[in-house]
Write a structure and sequence with these properties.
This protein has 135 residues and is of the alpha+beta class. The protein contains two helices and five strands, in the order E-E-H-H-E-E-E. The chain has one domain: Roll (Nuclear Transport Factor 2, Chain: A), CATH 3.10.450.
Length: 135
């Protein structure tokens, strides 16, 4: 007698082309002052996501997939013209990974001593969002 069990044979997935995908609301925990304080969704959740994506350096944390985060720190020390072009590309590339974001554009750079404030517009499925990041 054999101790091996027999696997089922002949199973198939029918109508695999007719699978319907459902998008669920983007609810997440609200983080305020480094504390979890309830739940947020839609625009507020998206703003929080944008903040975390831009403030997480890509590839630095094993917990996140390679598509999460930005590579903005690498632009520090570049020539101003090159860095502006790279910052635009890297911010857009980082944020467009989120399926709620349709485009990122209208960049404005404000320089002050050894930092730059980058303002930009995020075009999302909800509305236009005016965001910024300091580098």
């Amino acid at each position: 007698m054999s101790n091996f069990s027999v696997l089922p044979q002949g199973a198939s997935l029918k109508d695999i082309d007719n699978i319907e995908y459902v998008k669920y609301p983007g609810k997440t925990y609200r983080i305020k002052n480094n504390r979890v304080s309830g739940i947020c969704d839609k625009v507020e959740a998206l703003k929080q996501t944008i903040y975390f994506i831009l403030n997480t350096e890509r590839y630095d944390y094993l917990i996140y997939p390679d598509s999460y985060g930005s590579e903005i720190k690498e632009t520090i020390g570049m020539d101003r013209d090159i860095s502006e072009s790279e910052i635009k590309r890297r911010i857009k590339e980082a944020l467009i990974q989120d399926d709620r974001i349709e485009n990122v554009d209208e960049f404005i750079f404000e320089y002050e001593k050894d930092s730059v404030l980058v303002k930009f517009t995020v075009f999302s499925i909800y509305s236009k969002l005016y965001e910024s990041v300091v580098i």
